[in-house]
Structures are given as structure tokens and as C-alpha cells.
Amino acid sequence: MAAQIIDGKAIAEQVREEIKAEVAKLAAGGVTPGVATILVGEDGGAQFYRGQIEKNTATVGFNYYNHTLPAGAGEAEILELIAMLNADAKVHGILALMPMDAAIEQNAVFNAIAPEKDLDCVNPANIGHVLLGDQLFAPATPSACIEILDREGIELCPGGKGLNVTIVNHSNIVGKPVALLCLNRNASVHVVHVFSKDVPAACREADVLICAAPVQNLIKADMVKPGAVVIDVTTIRVDGKQVGSLEFDAVCGVAGHVTPVPGGVGPVTNVILLKNALVACKALAGMS
Questions:
Q1: Span between the terminal Cα atoms of the chain, in Å
Q2: Is 286 a domain residue?
Q3: CA-based Rg of the chain, rounded to a whole angstrom?
Q4: I need a labelling partner for 140 at 20 to 30 A (CA). Which of 119, 150, 170, 286 fits?
């Protein structure tokens, strides 16, 4: 069996075009989605991410607001800036870029962002809504996994029978929220991680296998159910190249659908942030 390689770039472009069409409709009513980032200090990774957000927002016609504070900025100054952005009607989405100085209480920053503007869903209120299944939007990377399944026509509960989904990761940013999103679609979900007794056995049961473990070649062919959908969320750098967590060629010989790294989940995650901002904008503007 040769797996179908899922083209994340093509999916991302589809979503991007849909967002651009919605932005044009909003513009006719005098509304433009606005995204603000908060960068504290000069961390290279955070600076790169900030630049990517600026480029991505420009591709769909959003307004972008960059707020950079010096490395010595205190927590009170950051919280004051967040309060200002919460109150700014031109800003519909806020992203607080990490890392910040160790003296800054990360949870205090996350909790200060208004839930309706919290594009990364780091405010606990938003995770609570994901748990209940009534969220305005969900974290970008977990949502990207669901978007990929939807675009590929893969239902998690076809004919009223939930698929078996195994998630290799139990982090707050990927594993837990993607488990909730799958549960809310009536899948049967098994979450495994570094402390689990038998990760390979859990993987072999999966109709849909989602791996976000930062270990190269972790998922081998004999851990994959024939015909399974395998979504590789992992992105690590090895010898200057982006790689994922699959023994890719071997897994492709067993699975039915596979996302590559790069070019799989990553591009879709980027546009989901934009989609979240669009949803936030329409909600704040009282538009459906």
C-alpha cells in the first residue's frame, strides 16, 4: 500500500483564499480584522515567529500591530499593554510571544488576554470552552489537525461509529486539546506519552494516529494500522533540516494517508491562526 501524502500547503491555500473572501465582505462594512503581537526582549525564535505573523496577516489583508517591549520590561508593564489591547476595538486578536523573562509569570500574562481575543487559546477560559465543545475557536495546531481531516473527507464518527484515535502527546498546547476536539466529534480517544506503558500497542489500534512527540523516527511501520491516517505534528531540526516523528517512507508503505514534514500540519496551523482572528473579528463586530 502506498499512502496518500496530504498536501498541507494546498489545504492552507484553500483556507487562505476563503479568509480573503470573508475579509473583502467585512471591508464593505468598514471592518478589517486586526492582530496584535507582544514581544518582550530579543529572543531569536520569538522574533522569527513575529515576522511570520506579520507576513501571514498581510497575505489576507489583516491589519497588524507590533508591540515590542525591552527585555527588562516588568510584568505590570506587560499587563498594562494587554489591558490596552483588550480595550482597543481595532484589535481582534492578541498573541503574547514566548519566551519572556523568567521573572514574568506566564500564566498571569495568559490569563490577562481577553478570551474573545486569545488567538492561541492560552487563557484557561478558552480551554474550558473546548472541553465543553462550545468554543468560539480552538488552539491552532489541534485545529489544524481537524481541518486536515475535514478537508480530506475523513469523518471521526462515520455512520455513528467513532473511529479509534491515538494521540502521542499529552501537552497543554497539542495533546490535550486535540484529544478534546476528537472526543467532541465522538471519536474513541487514547492519549499516550513518555510515561505510558505500551505506546506501540496503542498506536497499532488507531484508525487515526496523531503524533506530536519531538522524537525523530519514533513512529515505525509496525506501529501503524494498515490504512490508518497518520498526522505528524512534530517539527524538529536535524542537521539543519526539518523532520518529523515518523519513519516516513516505511510508514507510507502501511498507512492510508500521511502528512509530511515539512509541508503538512505546519502551513495549516499558520492559516488557522488567521481563521481564528477572522472568527474573533466577526464575533466582536456582531457579524455572523
A1: 44
A2: no
A3: 19
A4: 286
Q: Is the peptide bond before 99 cis (omega within 30 degrees of 0)?
A: yes
Question: Using 50, 70 and 90 to split pLDDT, how confident is the model at 102?
Answer: confident
Quick one: pLDDT band at residue 287, thresholds 50, 70, 90? Answer: confident
Q: Identify whether residues 104 and 193 lie together within a single domain.
A: no
Q: 492561541: which residue's cell?
A: 120
Q: Give residue-wise pLDDT tens across range 218-274.
A: 999 999 999 999 999 999 999 999 999 999 999 999 999 999 999 999 999 999 999
Alpha-carbon distance of 116 to 108, in angstroms, equals 17
Domain that holds residue 67: 28-114
Q: Is the pLDDT at 93 greater than 60, yes or no?
A: yes
Q: Beta-carbon neighbour count of residue 52 at 10 Å?
A: 12
Give residue 1's pLDDT: 57
Do 261 and 149 have their domain in common?
Answer: yes
d(CA 274, CA 175): 21
How far is 27 from 16, CA to CA, in rounded Å? 16
- Cβ atoms within 10 Å, residue 51: 12
**Residue 59 domain flag:** yes
